[in-house]
């Protein structure tokens, strides 16, 4: 799962099968940038995929409309998108008995769609004490 949120309370996401690799990250970035004139700012952790040549080339293809900022190592709490994942876990999958991968994907998709319709909740992720730096 890949997700992007903004301070206005909107969210984009993509559910992937298997490992998130450079190809999938680029697919997500292209969808993210499709109807955005820019500039778009992305805050990422230091996952090797985010720093791969494929992803760097993809970022460069947007001619400066996409700017990427990397978080310090081992600091997921500084990434507001982590709040999306925490929300899905606590309100979507928590202690559920899930009967298989298709059911799991359906539950995740449903929770993310519901969250998309709750901009107030998404905006609150930026008020998390560790993420307040974004609004200042």
UniProtKB/TrEMBL annotation:
- GO MF, one annotated term: nucleic acid binding
Provide the Tc1-like transposase DDE domain boundaries: 1-94
Q: Specify the superkingdom.
A: Bacteria
**Pfam families from the UniProt entry:** DDE_3
List the Gene3D superfamilies: Ribonuclease H-like superfamily/Ribonuclease H
Tell me what this protein is called: Transposase
Q: Which organism is it from?
A: Desulfosalsimonas propionicica
What phylogenetic lineage does the species belong to? Answer: Bacteria, Pseudomonadati, Thermodesulfobacteriota, Desulfobacteria, Desulfobacterales
């Amino acid at each position: 799962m890949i997700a992007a949120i903004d301070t206005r309370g909107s969210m984009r996401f993509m559910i992937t099968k298997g490992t998130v690799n450079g190809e999938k990250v680029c697919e997500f970035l292209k969808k993210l940038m499709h109807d955005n004139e820019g500039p778009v700012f992305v805050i990422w952790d230091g996952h090797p995929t985010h720093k791969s040549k494929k992803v760097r080339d993809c970022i460069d293809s947007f001619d400066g409309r996409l700017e990427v900022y990397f978080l310090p190592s081992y600091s997921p709490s500084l990434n507001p998108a982590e709040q999306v994942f925490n929300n899905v876990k606590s309100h979507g999958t928590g202690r559920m008995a899930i009967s298989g991968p298709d059911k799991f994907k359906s539950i995740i998709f449903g929770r993310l769609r519901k969250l998309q319709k709750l901009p107030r909740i998404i905006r609150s992720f930026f008020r998390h004490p560790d993420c307040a730096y974004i609004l200042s």
